[in-house]
Amino acid sequence: MALVWIVERETGEWAARPLSGEALGLGERGVEPVPVDAAEPLGPVLRRYGAGPAGRPRWALLAEPGRKVRANGEAVETGIRVLRNRDLLTLAGQQFVFSTEELPFAEPVPEDRIGTRCARCTRAFVSGEVVVLCPRCGTAHHAMETLACWSYRPRCATCDASTSGEEYAWTPDSL
Ligand SMILES: [Zn+2]
Ligand SMILES: [Zn+2]
Q: For the chain, how many structural domains are there in total?
């Protein structure tokens, strides 16, 4: 699920807000769901916008020209901008960073991985198994009770992505 990073007012730290639903308003209080048909004149809105790679939803920023929202420092002249990973949005001195990073999740082994080998136990995947694809490097690991290759260690077998399911590999601190 795509998400937006915002600075938490209480702690001053970046916090992840997963983007669920169809439309979310961008404002002083961060991101909040808004009715789809009331996108204007409430303010800038993040709107689900078709599907991208692997069927994951894409998101667009909708803002009437002249609004003070900027994306990577540029005004949204056309009123719409399809968001890309790590786009920096600014509004009234507040920063929002869009990210397409997914937390790891278990899923049936994708067809194109059947017969390839698990990076942890090196056994070949067979149809019907459950795996986690590392959200950072894409490497497949078993994720079953009997073969918990993904969670067996704190990091992915081939990169340093966390296997805890709670920790994003990238945060805006590295901007
Ligand atoms: Zn395995
Ligand atoms: Zn990895």
A: 2
